[in-house]
Amino acid sequence: MLTITNSQFSSRLFVGTGKFSSAAVMKRAIIASGAQMVTVALRRVDLENPEDDIMSHIDIKKIHFLPNTSGARNATEAIRLAHLARAASGTPWLKLEVTPDPRTLLPDPVDTLKATEQLVKDGFIVLPYMNADPILALRLQDVGAAAVMPLGSPIGTNQGIQTALQVAIIIEQARVPVVVDAGIGAPSHASQAMEMGADAVLVNTAIAIADDPVRMAGAFKQAVEAGREAFEAGLGASSTTARPSSPERGRIGEQLDFIDG
Amino acid sequence: MSSGFKISNFTELRAQILSGTANRVSAALNKQTCSLDDLAALLSLPAEDYLPQMAARSREITAMRFGRTTQIFAPLYLSNFCVNRCAYCGFAADNNIPRKKLSLNQAEQEAEILKQRGFNHVLLVTGEAPARAGVDYLEAVVRRLKNRFAAISIEVQPLEENEYGRLFAAGVTAVAVYQETYDREIYKKIHLAGKKCDYDYRIATPARAAAAGMREIGIGALLGLADWRCEGLAIGMHLSWLRKRFWKTNFTVSFPRLRPAAGSFEPLVNVTEKNLTQLIFALRIFDPDVGLVLSTREEARYRDGMLGLGPTRYSAGSCTAPGGYSSNEHDGEQFSVGDHRTIDEVCATVSEKGFDPVRKDWDREFQK
Amino acid sequence: MQIFCNGRQQDIDEGVTLSQLLVGLELPADTVVAEINKKIIDRDQYETLKLNQGDQVELIRFVGGG
After folding, report:
1. What is the pLDDT of residue A242?
2. Euclidean distance between CA atoms B186 and B224, whole angstroms
3. pTM of the model
4. Selection from B166, B177, B110 nearest residue B138 by Cα
5. From B223's CA, which of A33, A82, A187, B133 has a CA 20 to 30 Å away?
């Protein structure tokens, strides 16, 4: 079971709701993914052409809403969006995103830390999206982040876990759950993150733009479960040099003849 | 911090260690990062057959994380007054030894001798006698000595967080406080009187010192009191608990083996050099970044042999009686040393073996 | 009188409430959150809150996002 603050989740796959061809496909994909946590964004209603209300497609009794602050360029904007999100959703859960560069959508570490600190004081359960910077993860944890969400590679790129070395350090050090977000383009990427010991992954683009998003959602479900199972079963170590699979006893090691007895 | 560190009882730890098999030892040796289960395997009896391989891995990690350097320091005993009755300790209140507390001038005199001998890092040591050698005294000593040394560590009675804060402001860089034994039952039996009887207060002390901002915290166990394999696992658990909470703090581990002292306490369990070696390798492989201290309790032959294999810090030229550097007086010492060489002799061997003896690691001047 | 709703200038009658505005826009009240002059309005005030000349109204709702 994944525990974030006091909530428990049996699924370790979070699904984003953007970029789907239709609300109906999104709904079926979420069900196929088994996800219990879905992210949503907040936007002004387009008065000329109001879309359907996304909340009507998601069974909020079974699935946790995780509103994000996408579009916020700085801490002030993110905090404003967060309060709107709480008013709209009725939950204090928040995926904090502060992305000043519209080209890469990479998160701003300084304003993310600032906003996290403020929003925790305001009573939010904050899951900040962050670059895979281990010290930032610790700083965010210290100001009260409920989990950290390091990126695998820039959002929407489907490049996989390019930040593996850094993510591994974050996983080793963090006291709060680590949810690998962004860049997960294939089920194998999700497995890799889970095998490394990530607590969960968030996937959106890879499911939404697949030829068959519903089947892809199912594939991610299995990949996340397999990766987690492998992590819990205890993976053997990998090495760049050959290691014998027969016992190593008696292999050459250090001379320890200075030891008495 | 809301919840304190809790250690499982030794029966559970022993069971965890007994599950270590040759295969698990071999697997642990091939991993990039070790879990507590891996540490348990490395501390197990089957791991003894892998000592040369553990040494090779430990050497490799130590070289990668610490380079070819060895830090050198000396203890400066300020006072041997003590209200505790710890069965194993030469300072115990009921031991009939000459008691002494250095005046500020005497402390300065001892410090000057160490400075002349080339030390730049001292460890100030006292027994537990807050009425005689309390925080005010320690603060005054540190203010007197701080301009002579790059780093000042203390190994004194457990203090409150605000008291550690005062000493940090005065110039202390590091705090060593050993649990002696993590086995609650044995702890109770050998701490016969005094504040030290409180196991829980003592085990929470490293966290208080870290919370006060100390740059480095030393933990450890006195070997010879309880099952050393379990002590090793308990140290690993304490260390990883502390690391999760105090990520800005450096940690060190010491492995003092019981040596003859006044009061003639016989070690409750025999810990051989081979056992000590396994413990050192296991902890190095478990935590690549932890500083490992090897004191003058061990003999020169062993200390020289272990250079570069895991330990990163050696004491040298130690006298464990207050005022011992200026008077050559060894009465009233805490324990007798196994390595009697001077700092220059120790440094010469360290250099000969291809390591740089580092007499300071940090300049307190930069500490804010 | 005039208000600004989601950046668009709009003429409404004096005394129109927020919930009447939403009905006019065919937006169910429970699917949007309203901000007037950068202040978030509680849903239970929608019925009674009368709009004023020059109010900046923002109507926001959840959309798909990652």
Report:
1. 55
2. 11
3. 0.78
4. B166
5. B133
